[in-house]
Amino acid sequence: MTATIAIIFAVICTVISIKTFLLLGILLILTVLFKRFNLVVFFSIALLAGGFFWFSDNQNQSVLESGDIEAVATLNDAITIDGDTFRAQVMYRGERLQLSYKIENEKEQQQLKQLKYGDQLQVNGVLEAPEKNRNKDQFNYQAFLYHKKVHWLWKANSLKPTKILNKSPLHTMKNLRKSQLEKIDTTLDTKISPYVASLIYGDRSYIDTTVYNNYQRLGVVHLLAISGLHVNLIVSGFLLLFRRLGFQIEKTAITIMCLLPLYCLMTGGNAPVVRAALMTICLILGNLLPIRITSLQALCCSFMLVFLFSPYCVFEIGFQLSYAVSFAIILSGRKIMRRATSNLLSSLYVSLISTVSGIAVMSYHFYEFSIIGVFLNIIYVPLFTFILLPLSFLLLFCLNLVPILLDIPTAIMKIAVTVSEIFAVMLQSIPFTTWVTGRPSNIFVILLVILIFFFFYQWEKTGKTCRYLFPIALCLFISSVNWVGKVSLIDVGQGDSILIQLPWNKGNYVIDVGGQMIFEKEKWAERKEPFSIGKNIVVPALKSRGISKIDKLIITHSDADHMEGLIDVGSMIRIKELIYADGGETKSIMKKALQALPETPTRKVVAGYSWRKGASMFQVISPKIRGEGGNNDSIVIAATLDNKKWLFTGDIEAEAEHALLDNPLIKADILKVGHHGSKTSTTPAFIDKVKPGIAIISCGLGNRFGHPREETLATLQDAQATIYRTDLQGEILYTFSKGFSFGLE
User: Sheet holding 644-648: strands in order across?
Assistant: First the structure.
């Protein structure tokens, strides 16, 4: 236990700063001088672990350079074909590269589906460095790849399979897993095949997005992954089988120890599986050797082994959750379980321990957690563990050995899966099932961890829970409060999305939600889950700030780059009032959105509509009459925020700008430049009247329109306005009383 805490402490110190790491050496010297033996051991281990992590991190470098490259690469991992997109991790000159390629036709797609791990490809493409997150607190793809020792994106223009070398044993195992997943997908009923793939091989990519989201909101999505409980049940099954076959206990134990690493490979090396497998191996060794190993010692040993094999594992969400929950159950579970007077209460205790121990991880990475998940686990854990998991193994057995017997287990599992999904959909109608916490700051994460330890300590000591859950809930609430106001121009690529947060959570307003043009594709080219600006960028940006409802969502006009994401946002975030310009509903994209969100209150507006919250004032100054949802019909808002004048102009062009020249409200300190910096907007006459000190342009990096245009930039520079751009700086964040900061800083 001491070594585990020392490793975590060392990694935190090393990540913060090398100076902080050197502090460990000073602390070690002090503990030696004062003869504190326990602390000497702790800081010695921490120093060794920190040095190991620092050395490993320094070795994680690339010798390649960006630019065009044509070479032969070996398929190494994560082959994915999704519609017209091919992705895989490849090896080239001893380095891992993330390969991507757009498939040209259905015939080529079928050819690529025949590829296996270990095959070689002749690739012609471009090496590009992966980008970090462009919006605050969002998923950092660059860091994600870095922790997998991938430094480059290889965007291929052409792919051509070449000769196949002798595959390694690891490639053979990966190919066996790949072939089994393909067999499950093509042979089993489409209703149950995703569950079998997920519960046996740990691959959740086949699960329908809607189904996955339902389980995630209910807090039971972890059951779709292979957990330690699954591994324990499998091990118990093998023990029973081998004993029935007459194997000696020692031979059975050794056989299981040999099979567990293979099972880890077959499941893709998921963190919970690796943890459970290593723990089981440690416990078996303890029984075979003349030493006794406790569950806690086995858990700590598995932690250290995984860390030595892959130091970056500590950054993986699955690793953090698995070990946090396991430590809590082992350390506190036994004492707490003694108070359980029934199996139902015992299950509830385990569920509560798992939920509370994972709160810090869930809040930090997912910005929310399920409140009712504590109770639903009592229903769903037995369903998945004792019904769906055994049926999945039975189906796999029949699929490979006796296909004629598939019908009966298929019918039973379809009934179980259907009931599970219907129940999940019904529960979605219950309000307040999920708490959107936002991402706590580092200080609040540390405070959360301390309060969680305090909760378990008091639960063990007093048997009380509610009174000690309150400090945790209060900490989460305080961390989500927006104490000062903020204005965020979210980087949604070529589009607009602006979030205005008033101080003390008095109001959350969103102007536009971004989006992209949707083009029809042939059936073979359709992606299973197309990228969505609303779902993949705007919703996470809102939830990361602790926003579960929007007081007013204003759609400036009915163009896709301003509102295509509305349906996704409206289905995931409660909109108290949807505002759009009168006449905007005549365009098909707005009609579709209104039909998809029938319960959302709406308001059509023209110039003259306004609202006030405290010292903040918002006034719609255009359009003056009903329009058709085009650029010049954009809602223009003059706002007073933090004692500064703001002007949000949508996509208005020269004609609408000219109509506003006589309006004194257009004078502003900060201007959101119209139409992404197009040459048809931001006329010199308009800028001369607005006189902005700061001009903000929302546009996509390398967009095909060439925005912002040189003419527009010249006009703003002539007016001596400071220019901020989302394509160059990522999200542009203004904090009241503090000023601007940027997502790519």
Answer: 610-613, 616-622, 636-641, 644-648, 670-672, 694-697, 722-725
Class of domain 67-167: mainly beta
Prediction pTM value: 0.87
CATH 3.60.15.10 is right for the domain spanning 486-742: yes
For the residues of 170-204, what is the DSSP string, one character each? Answer: HHHHHHHHHHHHHHHHHHS-TTTHHHHHHHHH---
Distance, in Å, from the CA atom of 575 to the CA atom of 584, rounded to the nearest integer, reads: 18
Is pLDDT above 60 for 107?
Answer: yes
Provide the residue ranges of all domains of the chain, joining segments of one domain with +: 1-59, 67-167, 185-439, 443-480, 486-742
Residue with tokens 């017997």: 405
- Phi and psi based region of residue 330 (left: phi greater than 0; alpha: psi -120 to 50; beta: remaining): alpha
Considering only 84-98, 136-150, 203-217, 356-370, which range has the smallest mean pLDDT? 203-217
pLDDT tens-digit map of 652-680:
999 999 999 989 999 999 999 999 999 99
Give 61's strand partners: none
Residue 726's identity, in one-letter code, is T
**Whole-angstrom Cα distance, residue 505 to residue 484?**
9
Closest CA to 671 of 648, 643, 654, 639: 648
Helix axes 373-382, 343-357, angle to 10 degrees: 120
Task: State the angle between helix axes of 442-462 and 343-357 in degrees (0 to 180), rounded to the nearest 10.
Answer: 160
Q: Which amino acid is at 462?
A: T
List the Cα angle 740/741/745 in 5-degree steps. Answer: 155
Question: CA 728, CA 664: separation in Å to the nearest integer?
Answer: 32
pLDDT number for residue 165 = 64
The beta-strand segments (E) located in 83-114 are 85-92, 95-102
- For residue 278, which of 289, 291, 293 has the smallest C-alpha distance? 293
- Residue found under tokens 């073979």: 524
Kindly give, in sequence order, each residue whose CB lies less than 8 Å from that of residue 645, ignoring residues fewer than 6 positions away: 638, 639, 667, 668, 669, 670
Q: In whole numbers, what is the pLDDT of the chain averaged over residues?
A: 84
Lowest average pLDDT, out of 183-197, 517-531, 575-589, goes to 517-531
Contact assessment for residue 681 and residue 673, using Cβ atoms and an 8 Å cutoff: yes
By the 8 A CB rule, do 347 and 375 touch?
Answer: no
CA distance 512 to 580: 10
For residue 87, the tally of other CB atoms under 10 A from its CB is 13
Cα-based torsion angle of the residue sequence 645, 648, 653, 655 in order, rounded to the nearest 10 degrees: -60
DSSP string, 407-443: HHHHHHHHHHHHHHHHHHHHHTTSTT-EEE-----HH
Residue 675 to residue 681: CA distance in whole angstroms: 7
Tell me how far apart the terminal alpha carbons of the chain are, to the nearest angstrom.
38
